[in-house]
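Journal club side-thread
Mid-discussion, someone asked how the predicted structure for our own chain would compare to the paper's figures. Pasting it here so we can look after the session.
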Amino acid sequence: MPIGPQTLPGPSFRAMREPGEAAAGRPIRITALDRTRGFAVICMVLAHFGPGIYDRVGLQGTPRHVLDLTGRLATPMFVLIFGITLGIVYMPRAARDPAAVRRALVRRAGLVLLCSLVVVAPATIALFVETSQRVRAFDLLLRQYSVLTFYAVAIFATGLACSALARDPWRTGLVAGATLVFAGSFLGYDAWPQGGETEWELLRLLFVSGKYGVFTLLGSAWLMLGLGVMIRRRVTAGEPFRQDLAIIALSAILIALSVGRVVGWRSIADLAQRYDAPPQLWFLVMAGGAMLIALAVLDAYPLGLAGLVLEHVGRNPLTIYLGHAFVLPAIALARQLAPDVPELVILGACVGGFLLFCAITVHRSIRKVARAGAAGPKKNPAGTIAPAGLSLS
């Protein structure tokens, strides 16, 4: 039987099952979550490539602010999907074999750290080329800071804590997550003042004050563990909960915007341009509500071929992130090496190459799933069906 989306009894989430597992009632992969992650990838592309396009076409005012805000939602959406993924896939596994999950997450953290070094390689090379004197350690380490740095630390920390988190993801996730959020919010302002260009300032940037402050973002992800466990249980039991998810999402958005109004936002432009560093919980909650609405909508309306593309984009976020990270450096290099080539030709070649890379990635992912469906379910060393490993990016 080919692998593919299956509709569970009742108006619940569609899940992808390994062949032969339908009778067992255990969902392996929730395709709506993959599609939601794919939507977050599109938001990321908007955030990084959109401003240059908007400037060229002269887009201003509310339409520009709406698109900028959509792009800004990418990072918090990814972070909260990461937390839900942990609850769906890794907490049940950690409850059975925490050592195996710890090893898997630590290996994943190492891979993400390696990818982060690859992503910042152009900026690192430029630092050495542009600096006539000896490169300072502070400047070199500062160039290594990116969202992947956060994920490497967050995945590693989750691996170390997975045994404790898995015992009771609801309670432990809430307490540990809230503690981290409080620490990040408290230290992110005057409690840990800026210390100049020192190693301590780099630690402050990484954990509390930067755009990707580990304490607040990881705490927010751990707050989602219980929701991930709930989704898995509801899907497994075939119980409807899409309406509950929509209510949670709408309530989260309204409460977050209410708190943010007190903080000071007054327009869409404020939401699109401010409150990024250090991360603020109310903004993350607002983005989380938007993500949950997208999750419910993309489950209710799979979108046919477009949904299939979104799903497989969402299965390969790290690969696509790596590809997109080299587009802007490639454009800058092409301008230097070929100054007489028309700008549109350079942009078309670089962006077109990235789109081709995405198309190949999606095609290979679809073929991989088809081959897995033809081969039947895979077993892990313990002889049980292994989850399909939702991406942690």
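Post-session note: Residues 124 and 130 are 10 Å apart (CA to CA).
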